[in-house]
Amino acid sequence: MSSSGRTIRYDHSALRWVSHLVVTCLLWLTFVSDVSAHGERAQLASMRMRTIHWFDIQVHKTEMKVGELVTITGKFIPSEHWPKHLGGVEDAVYLNVGVPGPTFIRLESSINGVPMIRSTSLEKGKLYEFEMQLRARIPGNYHLHPLLNVRDVGTLVGKGAWVRVEDIDEPVTFVNEVETMQGEVIDLETYGVETVKIWHAIWIVLGLAYLVFWLIRREMFIPRYMQTKQAIESGENPNDIITRRDFMVTAGFFTVTLTLILTGYLYTDYKYPLTIPLQTGNVSVTGIDIPAGPLRVDLNRASYELGGRSLTLEMQMTNSGLLPIQLTEFATANIRFMNPEAPATMPVYPDEEMVAANGLEIANGVIEPGQTIDVKLVASDSLWETQRMTGLIHAPDSRFAGLLFYQDTNGEQYFQEVGGTIVPSFF
Ligand SMILES: [Cu+2]
After folding, report:
1. pLDDT exceeds cutoff 50 at 34
2. For residue 40, how far is its CA from the centre of ligand 1 (angstroms)?
3. Which residues contact 287 (CB under 8 A, 6 or more apart)?
């Protein structure tokens, strides 16, 4: 009774486990196919606000065919309010592009005109202008981001744009040819694939042969344990289970393996006499000083509304220039809060995401030459909520940073970083 009861219970739990697995897989398949972003909002709000200020990002083509080129340009400033507990940009940074899978190939990338094939180091508070050229490889709809891989920090994502890649009606849809230093033209899509297949086949055959040999000998795991136990119990030497023939066969496998490795090495060395190791050195790039504007900004108080969707900055501003200045935009965490009263702003590109056109409400938004006034700036939009900026409440150091844009009456654009302590407001 007890044993059959146990069996039934066991079957039940196994069945339940399998059904859970099936349901999970189905849910996973259903939802994964609908996911349209790739986690850029999941990154901590404080991290998005205080690491890299990306701006003026433009994907120059959003509809293309396989094989066509697309250029991405933009600017960024590593924040001077970088979280203390996080590594910095001074060590190793790599300019990269975020797309789901190998859907594009990157042909060129540069920061301030310096090619970025390798990693680099950056300086906080300096301006960097980047450019990347990609070639579309696989048809589909992709959210394309510029991004920086930063050592000890992770991936810092710039603003994304949707691009559509269509297939072409040709027998070979994508060709990726390069000329090597020796003048040989190779297709990187297929280069070396045959060799990879041959080596996989060799090791699979060898591995299977070894397994089959020991399976036939019934000398694996439990049978071997049983035999050893039996030998000890009957007073025999368990080492005798392994015969001389077993030893010879194993030695044969060992010799064949070593011979294959050595032959492979010698053949490769003979076939490709000229090789250089993978290059890992850093390239150096000089940051641009942010053009100094005529506006001095002192932050008095910063707060954000917990229930609402807004950020309030109270600042004292002094215009030391000769022309009136108008505040045009506040940008943080890739969200642009625009002053609707400004006659002109930094460019807003067609289909640009995360732009709150009426997001900036300013009292005293125009500062006359020589004037020192208190300015209250309220950045509010539903983007604050949808981009999960409310997560700021979970930051252990409650600080913020962003870029403030302004222009004089001649239309000259300036920008500078503002940042500091921020307190939540419950009303
Ligand atoms: Cu995305």
Report:
1. no
2. 6
3. 112, 122, 123, 126, 127, 128
